[in-house]
């Protein structure tokens, strides 16, 4: 789910009828799904930051050779 655009995630979140939100299972499923998306996004952000630092270090090494 973490690869879906935010717009699609909002549409998915709006699928259960209002009555279904009274069921605690819906809330648990929404929380569990949301936590997986947050973990994936955090991992992707960390990887992106790591790659950015690696590219910057390579450029600095070329400049100071």
Automatic annotation (TrEMBL):
It comes from the Bacteria. This is Uncharacterized protein. The lineage of its organism: Bacteria, Pseudomonadati, Pseudomonadota, Betaproteobacteria, Neisseriales.
């Amino acid at each position: 789910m973490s690869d879906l655009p935010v717009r699609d995630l909002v549409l998915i979140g709006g699928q259960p009828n209002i009555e279904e939100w009274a069921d605690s299972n819906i809330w648990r499923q929404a929380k569990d799904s949301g936590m997986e998306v947050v973990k994936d996004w955090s991992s992707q952000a960390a990887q992106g930051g790591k790659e950015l630092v690696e590219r910057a270090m390579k450029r600095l090494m070329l400049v100071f050779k």
